[in-house]
Amino acid sequence: MTDNSEQRDYWTDAAGPKWLRHQAALDALMQPVLDGVLFRANLQSGARVLDIGCGAGNSTVQAADAVGPEGHATGADISETLLGGARNVAQGRDNVDFILADAARHEFAPQSFDNLISRFGVMFFADPEAAFSNMAKALKSGSIVTFAAWGQIPENPYFTYPAQAARAVLGATPKSDPDAPGPFAFRDPARVEAILSAAGLAEIGCDTQTVHLTPQGGIADFAELCLGIGPASMAITHFEADAAQIAALRDMVIDVFAPFDGPEGLRIPAQINFFTATKP
Considering 34, 122, 219, 251, which has the largest number of Cβ atoms within 10 A of its Cβ? Predict the structure, then answer.
């Protein structure tokens, strides 16, 4: 099986601290996506839930709330940095725990979970077929798999607009392979459905929806978030941008997102693939 150590290092050393600095803003931004996952998962009272790529724990805690005190939610993530934040979020809860694990390799207790969920946590495996095959071993027969992944790149201005602004102000960063492990690796439903089928899952489906992301605060706050994590942040680091360049980039990010600012605040359209499957 292909090793995922590169992802472990990235989410522990580079991305993890950034994510924790912006954790509250990111959780608020992506709450509509998590709502979509939990709605489709239809978690039942008393169920045992495995949350893959749980990050800083918000999704795991909400799953635990859904299954109640008789149920249990286990969050698994490859980043000890993010799990430190997750343990703080879940402090005092008896029906939540977290494990440091590469879900593609970890030996989960066989047939121990009723549900597998993930909000943007399963697109990073070097060998996704092998990863899902391994995770499926942890599921009982009839268990439901539900996860969200970003859809087509042009339909997700949360990524494309900051990237375009950064190119205009700073220049082009090296191109990355969208099919490599990363945010858009699962943008093609047919490819993902084939992966899930090869991993032994059944009743596979994808519901592609336009969801509106809900940033906290005003547009200036959202611009700061974009400069702190994501394509604009990576460009700032790559080009070692100075204060004047960062200020110009901030202004451009505000300008490009202004059309999404309305009476209810910013509402940013995002194409999301909601996948479902069952363990035979």
Answer: 122
Around 76, how many Cα atoms within 13 Å sit in the side-chain half-sphere?
19
Per the structure, how many domains does the chain have? 1
Q: Give 206-254 pLDDT, tens digit per residue.
A: 999 999 999 999 999 999 999 999 999 999 999 999 999 999 999 999 9
DSSP H or E stretch at residue 230 = none
What is the per-residue DSSP string for 167-202? Answer: HHHT-PPPP--TTSSSTTTT--HHHHHHHHHHTT-E
Q: Strand 268-278 vs strand 96-100: parallel, antiparallel, or unpaired?
A: unpaired
- Residue 194: phi, psi to the nearest 5? -65, -40
CATH number, domain containing residue 206 = 3.40.50.150
Q: Residue 29, Cα to own-chain centre: how many angstroms?
A: 11
Residue 72 near residue 64 (C-beta atoms within 8 A): yes
Please check whether residue 227 lies inside any domain of the structure.
no
Concatenated DSSP letters of 244-272? HHHHHHHHHHHHHHGGGEETTEE-EEEEE
Q: Is the dihedral of CA 170, 180, 102, 34 positive or negative?
A: positive
Tens of pLDDT along 12-50?
Answer: 766 778 889 999 999 999 999 999 999 999 999 999 999
The pLDDT, as a whole number, for residue 1 is 45
Residue 221, both tokens? 């706050």
Question: If you search the block for the tokens 């990111």, which residue do you land on?
Answer: 26
Task: Answer yes or no: is 232 within a domain.
Answer: no
Q: How far apart are CA 186 and CA 25, in angstroms?
A: 24
Residue 123 lies in a domain: yes
> Residue 29's domain spans which residues?
5-153+177-213+269-278
Tokens of 51: 């949350």
Contact 256, 165 (CB under 8 A): yes
Asked whether residue 239 is domain-assigned, the answer is: no
Cα distances (Å, whole numbers) of residue 166 to 150, 223, 252: 21, 12, 9
